[in-house]
Description:
The structure holds 2 protein chains of 2 kinds. By secondary structure, chain A is an alpha+beta fold. Chain A has 3 helices and 6 strands; from the N terminus they run E-E-E-E-H-E-H-H-E. Chain A has one domain. Chain A has helices at 40-46, 54-64, 70-87, and strands spanning 5-8, 14-19, 22-27, 32-36, 52-53, 90-92. In chain A, the strands form 2 sheets. In chain A, strands 5-1-6 form a 3-stranded antiparallel sheet. In chain A, strands 2-3-4 form a 3-stranded antiparallel sheet, with no helix packed on it. The longest helix of chain A is centred in the last third of the chain and has 18 residues, at 70-87. Chain A is globular. Chain B contains 10 helices and 16 strands. In chain B, the strands form 3 sheets. In chain B, strands 6, 7, 8, 9, 10, 14, 15 and 16 form an 8-stranded mixed sheet that branches. A 5-stranded mixed sheet of chain B has the order 1-2-3-4-5, with helices on one face. Chain B has a 3-stranded antiparallel sheet with strand order 11-13-12.
Amino acid sequence: MTDRAYRAAPPGALRVEPLGELTAIFDRRSMQTHLVVSPMPEILAAMGAEACDVATLAARLAASFELDGEADVRPILAERLAELAATGLVERA
Amino acid sequence: MRHSTRIAVGPVQFRIGSDWAGPVAALERLYAGYPEDDARPADATVRLFAARPWRRWLRPSVHIGGDFVVPDALPLPLSMGLLAAEMGMNLQVALGWRRHMLLHASAVAKDGRALIMSGESGSGKSTLAALLGEGGWRLMGDEFTLIDPAGGDAFAFPRAVSIKNEAIAEVSARVDAARLGPLLAGTPKGDIRHLIPRPDAIAAMHEPARPALLLFPRFGGETTIEPMGEGEAFVRLTEASTNYVALGEAGFAALTRLVRETPAFGISYPDSAAGIALVGQLWADAAT
Lengths: 93, 288
């Protein structure tokens, strides 16, 4: 499987408000509210301004969180990124 | 419209027109103690009209109209004109109001702080608010609570309280009959009788109150109290708000602040006395 790259929303596009176990995200472009749970907010926060592939993201997350093996986490991250892309919160680079 | 009246409930100025005198006379009786300001332009217009001109006499039936129209709103018989007017007023506010975030919730206030109760029809939120409003609380409203998007304060919408079914006897026993509207039996929502809020609640209807406690009541079953997380309260209140989406980011900001600053609980209670006791207990905790 190719490692697809994704790009985070431009600065200021999202308003992210943690609400306990849920995080509410208001997308100013679509005016939609998204409710997400971990690890979505962590993924969004780790994306940075540049296009980012799963390997890069896994490495960044591993630096901040204890992951059960970076390699095992990659397919899960790929799925989550695809889900975030489906909601419009990230886009394919 | 042959007959019309104006009513101010909280910040909303209604103009109500009707093809018949009956519903307007009934409204004027229920809202006689509300402030009048005929110079103010109407925020919402409700029209109760006959389907065809001859129907006004032959088989009177009330259709609800106004600035916003729900296409499948059922025509109601003339005897239910008051209910039709109430439904029309609710509809215009629910669909048209933008100055506040609207929550489908009842509210009462004490010492400038508000208890907000959100629930489906049948949850008991109206009855609890009505009974609390007869005690040491100011009734803010039994159907809608308005949240100021900028400051976060709750504002009242103290329309005549719609008391339903079993609660009618319970509330009627406690109040002067002059404060009750006619019994509307066998409506699509069951039996209904309106309660005119206390004069002090009407006089204070423009005073804001700071949200201090959010409850999600459920009538029936054992007495239980379940603390509710911010996320769940947020989800439930987006569902309970009729204009959350329309308000855009202002609604998002208002709702996130409300659930962060206000403790929330789901409560179940077998009867009104138990419900009022629960409210007293949770309010005492929230106030400390």
